[in-house]
Amino acid sequence: MTTKTQTLKFTRTINAPPAEVFRAFTHPTALRDWLCNAAQTDARKGGRLYLWWDDGYYADGVFTEFEPGKKLAFSWDGMGEPGPMRIRVSFTAKNGRSASQPSGEGMVVTVKHGNIGTGSKWADTRRAFERAWPMRLENLQSVLETGVDLRYSRLPRLGIFVGDFNPEIAARLGTPVTQGIRLEATAEGTGARAAGLQKDDVMVKLGGKKAVDFPSLTRALEGHQAGDKV
Q1: Which of 153, 182, 208 is the last residue of a domain?
Q2: Contacts of residue 22, Cβ cutoff 8 Å, sequence gap at least 6
Q3: How far apart are the first and last CA of the chain?
Q4: Hey, is 132 helix, strand or coil?
Q5: 90-126: per-residue pLDDT in tens?
Q6: What is the pLDDT of residue 219?
Q7: Which DSSP category does 211 fall into?
Q8: Which of 97, 117, 131, 228 is buried most, with the most CB atoms less than 10 Å from its CB?
Q9: In whole angstroms, how far apart are CA 91 and each of 45, 100, 174?
Q10: Measuring CA to CA, which residue among 45, 26, 42 is closest to residue 34?
Q11: DSSP letter assigned to residue 88
Q12: Which three-class secondary structure state does DSSP give residue 127?
């Protein structure tokens, strides 16, 4: 009996030297620059790769194809996912030639994320990669073309300066809460200043999510980008 699977396809044109584009998928430091937070690779056919993210997610696999400047493929076994998948990446010049014969017009990177199962148990995994790959490839383009890592440049900035806060300070200020983030000041030209936040205001929620200390504030900001209204 043949199991039905799906393949997701993504493409991005990147104006960078072919060797750098290929290296971005195979070298640990280059992978950290745009895709993950830590990596180990044995960049050859049959070699293994390991990828980690700060949120606890990780994936590992084996390079099953490895042709520098042309294509590579590797298995993908990610934490909590229903089964192993396969990723194939091809590199061609914008005019259709291989990356080993660059035209100077940019490289087209094509990612095919396959062996994704069907049915409800695969739904979350499929949606996650449908969202993730376009963002990751956009970041790869930004890193190689401009040196800017969008994962950091797009982080939201509240424009607040934080002071100490404890039950004694709460009593002195007459606030109804004893846990929260007390504002010492706000920065000119930021959303916090525009929203009218002032010194000694105490934040307990952000966008409907608990925000009483730095860990909970970080979680409340997850998924937001600079310019979002919360």
Answers
A1: 153
A2: 68, 69, 72, 91, 99
A3: 50
A4: helix
A5: 999 876 555 454 445 689 999 999 999 998 999 999 9
A6: 77
A7: -
A8: 117
A9: 17, 9, 63
A10: 26
A11: E
A12: helix
- Specify the pLDDT at position 43: 97
pLDDT of residue 96: 59
Does the reported pTM lie above 0.90?
A: no
Tokens of 174: 């007459």
Task: Indicate if 176 and 98 belong to the same structural domain.
Answer: no
Can you give the residue range of the structural domain that contains 32? 5-153
Q: Residue 220 — very low, low, confident or very high, per pLDDT cuts 50/70/90? A: confident
- Distance, CA of 138 to CA of 33 (rounded, Å): 13
- Total residues found in the chain within this entry: 230
Radius of gyration from C-alpha coordinates of the chain? 23
In-domain check, residue 171? yes
pLDDT of residue 97: 56
Name every residue whose Cβ is closer than 8 Å to that of residue 16 and which is 6 or more positions away in sequence. 107, 144, 145
Residue 2 DSSP one-character state = P
Nearest to 114 by CA among 77, 136, 95, 87: 87
